[in-house]
Write a structure and sequence with these properties.
By secondary structure, this protein is mainly α. 55% of the residues lie in helices and 0% in strands. The protein contains 5 helices and no strands. The chain is elongated and about 90 Å long. It starts with a helix and ends with a helix.
Length: 132
């Protein structure tokens, strides 16, 4: 048997494979265009709008952020829990120790937040705008 007999017959009516599109050619600039672009780039004009922060901190928090207010509330609740545990003769030392550790953790969270935010608060008066 001839090898041509094993191959399927080619259909001449089949659509030809699509040719891949050629990549776009880079634009060539004339020396006049290059000079005009260079002149435009060299003449810098700052178009950044002026920074004028308003309502950075919500007035209802009295100059503090809602994060600080939340930490303060949780710390107050933990302080009350510690007082109740110390007054309770049934409370274990582990519960009291855990409450003390929780207070330390909350204090550290508050301090770390303030250390990180001091840069922003001292810029342009920061909190003093809300406290006036």
């Amino acid at each position: 048997m001839a090898p041509e007999a094993l191959e399927p017959a080619k259909d001449d009516t089949a659509e030809p494979e699509e040719a891949k599109p050629e990549p776009p050619k880079p634009k060539t600039y004339t020396p006049e265009e290059i000079a005009a672009i260079s002149a435009r780039v060299e003449q810098y004009a700052d178009s950044t709008p002026p920074y004028n922060p308003q309502h950075v901190l919500s007035p209802e928090y009295g100059g503090t952020s809602n994060y600080e207010e939340g930490i303060r509330q949780v710390r107050q609740e933990t302080q009350e829990r510690l007082k109740a545990l110390e007054a309770d003769p049934q409370a274990s030392q582990q519960q009291i120790h855990q409450a003390v550790e929780d207070l330390k953790t909350l204090d550290h969270l508050y301090e770390n937040y303030n250390i990180g935010m001091n840069v922003f608060r001292t810029a342009h008066g920061g909190r003093s705008k809300l406290r006036k």
